[in-house]
Amino acid sequence: MSRLPLRTRFGSWLLYAFAVLAALLATQWVAHLQVRSYLRDEAARAWFLARSGSTPFQWQFRQRDDLIAGTVFGASRFHVDDSGIHVDGDHTPVEIGLRLSQPLDLRQFDQLTIRTTPDKAARQIIIRETLDAPQVSAMLDVPPTAVGPIDLSALAWRDEDGRPASVPRRADMVRLRLDRSATAMLDIHSVRFAPSAGATRLPAVTEVPHVTSVESALLLRDALRRREPSALVVYAGDIPTESTHAPSPAGAGWRWLLTGLAATGMVLLRLRPPHSPSWRAGLEATALLAGPLAVILGGHLGDNLGAWTTVAIALTVAFALTLRWPAWREWISPSMAAWRGPALAMLVALVVGAWFLAQAPDAHWPTPTQFARYTAWAFVQQFLLCGLVATRLEQAGLSSRATALAVATLFALMHTPNAALMLATFVGGLIWSTAWLRDRNLAGIGLSHAVAATILFATAPTALLRSAEVSARFLL
Predict the structure, then answer these.
(1) What would the CATH number be for the domain defined by 58-194?
(2) Measuring CA to CA, how many Å separate 364 from each of 7, 47, 361, 368, 421?
(3) pLDDT tens digits for 334-371?
(4) What Cα–Cα distance (Å) separates residue 108 from each residue in 52, 151, 271, 333?
(5) Is 308 exposed, middle or buried (0-12, 13-18, 19+ CB in 10 A)?
(6) DSSP state, 143?
(7) What is the pLDDT of residues 217-255, one digit of tens each?
(8) Contact call for residues 210 and 242 (beta carbons, < 8 A)
(9) What is the reported pTM?
(10) CA gap 269, 5 in Å, rounded
(11) Which member of 83, 133, 184, 254 has the lowest number of beta carbons within 10 Å of its beta carbon?
């Protein structure tokens, strides 16, 4: 009589194990698909521009995202519209940092055109060949741009001490300094680095097998670009051809329309919630997840938070603030049993970290301030995923196992396309969400998250864990 329940339990656990494995493989497939798509589109765009004699290095300044930190350094007031950047206020010099999606090959794109009003404002270009290299600079005291572009190879380059320097071969950082001594008003319309007439050459493309991990593919691309700034890496079969066209960027109009619909849905959900508690919980969980998943999976989380990204995140935060939060008893549990799950995650991280150190004893531990900041961020993540989302998925009718698996999968997807980090967050998310559903101890899982992640970030080799970045930031 007792053998049937045992078989039933064994079959249930076996089925759950298959579901966990399938979800884990699916998250890794998503990461691989996104990186492959990014590399393919990057190569297609570079190939198309090179064949057409155009350049990927041009800025129209119609949005703040074109600028490093989204600002004009040294300007007390400025604004951006369809005609460029408009700076006013005083006569002090200003600087703008140009966002580079890839290293700038100055041997090929050596013709600089700057359109400003007034066009005779004194200008200076400041370059770092790599981010940790010393900067070099040159004055751009040339005739107005109507006469022609500036030949960067003909400029008198100086190092930081004012001594003559070699012409830079590449740039990982570009800043432009403009003097407003003649007038307080300055309009910056566009900047363009282009090749000399007839000097265009197609970029070198390297194919990697489909079994290559996303980390290895990106590390190879970075290594090649240290020698050849325009080098491209694609997966086998994705190499661009003569018929390749530039990929079409997704329109922002649809994003704003869907965001407006989402905001309307959130308001209606708070003012006129469904009578069914399960429906209400499910819709609330969906509303909490829609914004972050759209931002991260869509590759919109870059160096600067654009207007749409900021609004999408703000909507999620605002909606979360209107919901019922976990009771105070669920923030910390005095029961030792409630700390078993969090302790397991820390133990797994310790074992993995020790193994990493045995292979290469080169850990990079954070400062106390950095650890404190990350601990706060870990608590925010666990509060949203466990305290709000997992609780509502359970209220919507999912079993504890299904809820834990769903939360782990969602947690991994919020770290796409960082495949190694997705693997770690899936395992951690499964442990933490299971512990939350059983013991309701946010303090335990928040602290466990902070400690486990710190150990992995400090000890994991770059070949395995490229960085802790997600979305577009991971691909830069």
Answers:
(1) 2.60.120
(2) 48, 39, 10, 13, 17
(3) 888 889 999 999 999 999 999 999 988 888 899 999 99
(4) 15, 11, 59, 63
(5) middle
(6) S
(7) 999 999 998 888 888 999 998 888 777 776 666 566 788
(8) no
(9) 0.86
(10) 42
(11) 254
